[in-house]
Amino acid sequence: MSAFAGGTSRSGDEEKPAEPVTADVQRQLERILASPELRRSSRLADFLAYVVEETLEGRQERIKAYSIGIEVFGRDGTFDPQLDPVVRIEAGRLRRELEHYYLATGRDDAIGIEIPKGGYVPHFFYRAQVSLRGEPEATVPLPAPAAPPGAAEGDRQHWRWAVTGAVIACLFALVWLGTRLERAESAASAAAAAQPSILVLPFADLGGKDIALRAAAISDELVARLVRFREVTVVAPEGAGPSDPARWPAARYLLDGSVRADDTRLRVTARLVERTSGTMLWSDIYDIDPKAPDTITLEEDIASRVATAVAQPYGVLFRSVERARDDRSPPQMSDSYQCALQFYEYRSVLSAELHAKVRACLRRGVATTPGNATAWAMLSYAYLDEDRFGFNPVARPPPVGRAIEAAQRAIQLDPANVRALQAMMTARFFNREPQAALQYGEQAYRLNPDDTELLGEYGSRLMQAGEHARGMAMMEEALARNPGTTGLYSGLLALGAYLDGDDARALVLIRRADLQRFPIYHFVATLIYARNGRAEEAAASRATFLKMRPAFFAQFEVELNKRNFNAADRAKIIADAAEAGFEVPARLHDARAY
Q: In angstroms, rounded to a whole number, what is the distance separating the alpha carbons of residues 430 and 62?
């Protein structure tokens, strides 16, 4: 007997299943397996089918990493999940694909299937506000009240006018709602037109066994990953391939590639071209061993690397547009995208002067294009930096409150916008809501794990909240995939290594940090030098920091609170700051109180 044969719960006189019955779960599984999200990866489809079917048969206890590795991924009896992380990696991918499925193809599905973290046994449930058949539940109209005996004709006339007025009011409401929806759609379209567009062509088959299938798979995966970057618009040809340029959609940039193979390797080449001038902006080559057991994972990794290189903030496309900005006339580049370029320039410089310009530009942008979710997210950061960096502060309303409101507006406009979720994560974090902040960060990470801007920021928040290992791993990945952020993330990694007790590594990392643009790193450097017995360097860093931030220790407790350090990390910082020669306030000097 299946464990999911379906219990019941009573509501009034109607009995409803407490959880979906087996037949309904099986139909939902078939629907998911037939979706675009799962069709492009047979490994994930097999993974999902295996765990769902085992659960429906009541064999949940068998669903372990070892059995999945053997039954789904074809590993032999020597498989060790601790040494071979294939199950853990694919489970993470499957969770993200399921989430994407329910955000898109399956948004109206009545039954949910998820795989909670910490295990591989799926959970089946009825999704809120969706009926089992995907139709609104029927309602029984109430009878109209009977007129009292002998009611006057005037009363009946009054009822007729009341009903007529109600109908007119409903019509006005519908017209108003339609106008608002039309305006919102127009605003969203304007926001999309305000940013660079990329035409993605199917990768060409240049010969070899099964190359056409592989080329199509890489192309599909690449498009799926690119659309997660909301700073670009992704378009694709319909009904025409690379041989018919006349029918290609309009776009300023072209991304295409090729796939070929011989007996020893499968080579994938990708390139980005500026279509007007024909200038080659970027190209890269990736090789795969065609005999490798995980070629699908390798192909998906290539799509991830291409998408990250091209579309991420500070990536190829951003640098190309930035270089062309001064030479381009206003009609060729929208004000909204000018603001976006200024925003990322500001993020790399962090100056009060540029902050004022960016904030003003973004305010104008959201006024003229209120449907641009990414612009609202960037404005959230501009508001927040009034508080955390002291740039051009406006006291009322409080900066953090304005930052949260702007991030909330961005999420309402586009719930799957990673930059909006990232902005909310950061605003909540500095509002001393670390748990809520990390939930937004995790949601953004599931939507686009290729976004190095998010990886670095989310990793830094995890590290500061006490999850040192995971946070540092994310920052290291961001640094490896986007070396342009070395100065920022090296300092954060140095802080993480210091908090984790790895003083030698912290010393190496702090020497790579950008100490001029981020004065707080002089404080971190002082602690690290002192821990490593480098008294002269510690003294020099201490003097430099106090010159740059003379009032820091007058509000030391506030500074610690802003960063949401856990009790152990907080105590370590306080104690080591006193040991390094800083004048720690007396009330904080006894670190054992924390």
A: 44
State whether residue 124 is helix, strand or coil.
strand
pLDDT in tens, 456-515: 999 999 999 999 999 999 998 888 877 665 566 788 899 999 999 999 999 999 988 877
Sequence-distant contacts of 18-24: CB under 8 A, at least 24 apart: 19/124, 19/125, 19/126, 20/111, 20/124, 20/125, 20/126, 22/56, 24/111, 24/132
Residue 256 has φ and ψ, to the nearest 5°, of: -145, -175
pTM recorded for the entire structure: 0.59
Q: Please give the structure tokens belonging to residue 513.
A: 């940090």
Query: Strand pairing of 204-205 and 253-261?
Result: parallel
For residue 451, CA distances in Å to 60, 218, 257, 346, 411 come to 35, 19, 22, 19, 17
pLDDT of residue 130: 47
What is the helix (H) or strand (E) element at residue 166, kind and residue range?
A: helix 153-193
Give CA–CA dist 472/446, Å, rounded: 18
Asked if residues 95 and 446 have their Cβ atoms less than 8 Å apart, the reply is yes
Residues forming a β-bridge with 253 = 198, 274
Give me 394's structure tokens: 């406006």
C-alpha gyration radius of the chain: 28
CA distance 456 to 454: 5
Residues 6+ apart with CB under 8 A from 96: 446, 447, 449
From CA 287, how far away is CA 262, in angstroms rounded? 11
Tokens standing for residue 509: 């990392």
Query: Which residues make Cβ contacts (< 8 Å) with residue 392, sequence separation at least 6?
Result: 352, 355, 356, 359, 386
CA gap 494, 490 in Å, rounded:
6
CA 360 to chain centre: 26
